[in-house]
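Supplementary Methods, section 5.1.

A reviewer requested that the exact input to the structure prediction be made available. We therefore reproduce it here, unchanged from the version used in the analyses.
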Amino acid sequence: MGDGRKPKIEPYPGPAGGWGSVKSVKAILQREQVPIPATVKELWRQNKPRGFTCVSCAWPQPEKPLKFEFCENGAKASAWELTSLRTTPEFFAQHTCTELLDWSDHDLEQQGRLTHPLRYDRASDKYVPVSWGGAFDAIASELKRLRETDPKSVVFYASGRASLETSYLYALFARLYGNNNLPDSSNMCHEATGIALRKSVGAAVGTVVLDDFAKTDCIFFFGQNAGVNSPRMLHDLQKAAKRGVPIVVFNPLRERGLERFTNPQSPVELLAGKETPLATQYLQVQAGGDIAAITGLCKTLVALDDDARREGRPRVLDAEFIAQHTDGFDEFATWLRAQSWDAIEAASGLARADLERAAATYAKADAVIGVYGMGLTQHVLGEYNIHMFANFMLMRGNVGKPGAGLCPVRGHSNVQGQRTVGIADDPALVPLDRLAEQYGFEPPRDKGLNTVETCEGVLDGTVHGFIGLGGNFLRAIPEQEMVAAAWRKLRLTVQIATKLNRSHLVNGEVAYLLPCLGRIERVDENGKPQVLSTEDSTSCIHASVGKAEPASAELKSETRIVVELARRTLAANPKVPWETWVGDYATIRDAIEATYPEQFKDFNQRMWQPGGFHRPNPARERVWKTDTGKANFILPPALTATGFDDAPDRFRLMTMRSNDQFNTTVYGYDDRFRGIAGTREVVLMHRDDIARLGLRDGQTVKLVSDAGDGVDREVAGLRVVAFDIPRGCVGGYYPECNPLIPLSHHAVFSKTPAAKSVPVRVVA
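The structure derived from this sequence is encoded token-by-token as follows.
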């Protein structure tokens, strides 16, 4: 490895949270060399009224917060932003971009916060300092030229961290420029959710609020690892478990964060080593087998209901709800009865008895929350995974009542909010007529490019410019190597960022790296402190107040950067007051309210409410904004969501995050819960598969693509780790395994990359 790391693989006996969490936070504080008093002060403000919204996940803020309303990964994200380390122009004077491409993702970001605007000098292959004015003018000049040739040739990408204010202006900038090319990180995770839930229940987002977790009497989990992806959720799960709420989990891997939890904020639990068991039933469905598993649950419910009707007992299904509020149930029930248990067991990898037991638990509950994550969305039939889960919830009326509903858990802290205020490649999701009247222009009406289509445009030469509002695009996408090779042919690449990452090292002919303030830092415009806002995964809007000292006097806010680029690129328009907006962010929120009056009524006043304010959600009120005017039962075309056939020695690869990671940001090399430390070059395999292939635990192998499309893809140097994973499935880390995902391997309708079931072979 060359950096002194020594891999260590051994089972971790502890719970999620506990002393392990405390030690992990201490380690990153030391690693980032953060000033402890200042950091503690900021952590005290995290996710609290008049504090700042976590820069990590999007789990909601409670109205009455805990003393410390942050989790292990939230503390890591804050330390990562508050770091004392700096990546200065002197650093870039010492290293070429080609040299830095050999560094790990962790080591690149570990250099610290970017401090100055930079221009890529192709002759020296280095970044060199540039003035802000020089950077803005040069970028605007390039954008103007590209617009004259083809306004659709430029892509405006957004990660999930930018505020509502910045996101609104960024989306407006793109449409004034002349396109709807607004891909974002949602394209790679929950785009399938938006498409599927709109068809099923008429809402593109979940239907639960935080208070529902205190009222529910049963929780079903599919494909969501709360201990890593949204650790603050564990507090709500712990409270539910202590009330005796059954928690039924479907997930290929046994994740510690769904098994047992010790609250690291409880001295009593820490000192006593007290653990709360979470999952009451844990079913290790095979990757891509969720449709079959849910089919088994639903088939059992129909059978139980048939028995109840014959015996004159109360119905198991909510017949009144189904009759009044749904469409398509009879066809769905007929389809269920036709499915064989042999096929269900084979496709899910689960026993009939286990599915029947889980269904019986569901049938006894009056109010059920259905939680899911990318384990459902990132498949070729990802939308149908969600349709089936919605079907399951509708059968007993568990949408639109207290303590119940669909709960997709979002990742990035404002990825859902960005879509709410216009970051969308689908113009049907945006009130274009209202924007036209508001700003006196004709918005583009044709569909823009999503993430996969952007990659296709880079490969076929139709994309010429790329603006990245945060993120690590080239590392997050599928087909990394092919796209990165074509990326250098782009005319213009601009990256707005807080830290250096791999995407900044692969540049177009003209390239700029623009450092921005982080969310925790103080934002002053024209001598006036500014406030930001975000939306969490329950459609709740929160104010976010940054107060930390900026990492560099040279840094500008994301909002200021977007405004400067827009006003220098576009012709003056008296209806588009860029300078007014950037001088007072409250005026941006007024503009958002004018565009979305139903969603953001009294925005500037209500965002200060403890716990935030909820956007209206018709499905929560049992108002179904679908083509039928009702919630819809939708049939899947297959029991398996993989999109490919099984074959001898063809494995289903699922990519995953470690405990020491958030999306493409790698905080360290300790995947504590899985017992893997010092390395990310691993492949998790069932012991029987290891033996069958003649391999051994600890052996080095490579994964090769088995997509059958004639493209050679491989990831080598992986250590075999025997693990509790379904036979025929393997696990590897994201983004290291992304090169194995074909660009064409995506969900049918949303084009979400199918990263949870990738066809691969294991080669010694």
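Residues 651-763 form a domain with the Barwin-like endoglucanases fold (CATH 2.40.40.20). These observations are discussed further in the main text.
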